[in-house]
Specification:
heterodimer, A: mainly alpha, elongated, B: mainly alpha, 0% strand
Chain lengths: 226, 36
């Protein structure tokens, strides 16, 4: 029973374990770096516990969170309207758009075992039909807001140490620090997503859900097409 | 054999991730609200 549950959910459980390990590693390395900088400037070194509850740690976590959720938000919504011929991440050319009730198994096209809000029609089906992008988008915006709120605290601490004036939150939104933190994460996500779409036309990973089967012709886009 | 129903594990996994992210965001907002 437990063994079966572990196997059935192995993908999300493995990523959960890796996430927790990486976050713990980031906390330890981030604390070591923060403690070193504090003592170099002759400032008091906080405890590990208070570092974990500091804006310094929060801004580093939040700036990476927002970019990952933006990446998925863009990928989820862009693949509705744009295609890449030959990529398993894409629908086939000609299939762009929202699809009809039959394709999407909604309202009159729903199956008896379709989710209740897919069968319901009206606003519930419209809302449920965008629930993934809405959730990823909300997490993106909240993470980006958290990054900005923690980032201004960190920058103002540094400014205070150098006798520079403090910035308001609105001023911080127009600052080089905010956009440097933001765009350095966005560029890497966009690079990796674009490369994945392009590379997966001609390259294969045997057995991976993210790849076409090894022998699938290069021109075939999604697994079920043609 | 394919399992034709939602299992407890699927529900646990979904809400664990949701709680992790909502909890993480709430913690970050609490940190900045309390002065970071």
């Amino acid at each position: 029973m437990i063994r079966r549950a572990l196997r059935d959910n192995g993908l999300s459980l493995a990523f959960l374990a890796l996430f927790l390990l990486a976050l713990a590693g980031q906390a330890v390395a981030g604390y070591a770096q923060h403690a070193e900088e504090q003592s170099e400037h002759g400032l008091p070194v906080p405890s590990f516990g208070s570092f974990l509850l500091s804006a310094d740690f929060a801004v580093d976590v939040a700036e990476n969170w927002q970019s990952e959720f933006l990446q998925f938000l863009l990928f989820i919504t862009a693949t509705v309207w744009l295609v890449q011929r030959g990529s398993p991440e894409s629908k086939k050319p000609g299939d762009e758009g929202l699809g009809d009730e039959e394709d999407q198994l909604i309202a009159h096209g729903a199956r008896p075992d379709s989710p209740r809000w897919a069968r319901a029609g009206g606003w519930r089906t419209r809302l449920y039909g965008h629930s993934l992008a809405l959730t990823m988008g909300a997490i993106f915006l909240l993470s980006w807001l958290a990054q900005s709120l923690a980032g201004v605290v960190v920058l103002n601490d540094e400014n205070a140490a150098h006798g520079a004036p403090a910035l308001s939150w609105a001023e911080y939104l127009a600052s080089a620090d905010f956009w440097n933190r933001t765009l350095q994460n966005w560029q890497s996500e966009l690079l990796a997503v674009g490369a994945m779409v392009a590379f997966s036309i001609f390259l294969r990973e045997r057995g991976s859900a993210e790849s076409k089967p090894v022998g699938t012709p290069h021109h075939v886009s999604a697994e079920e097409s043609e | 054999m394919s399992r034709q129903r939602v299992t407890t594990g699927m529900i646990v996994v979904f809400w664990t991730w949701m709680a992790l992210i909502v909890g993480g965001l709430a913690a970050m907002f609490a940190i900045v609200a309390l002065g970071g």
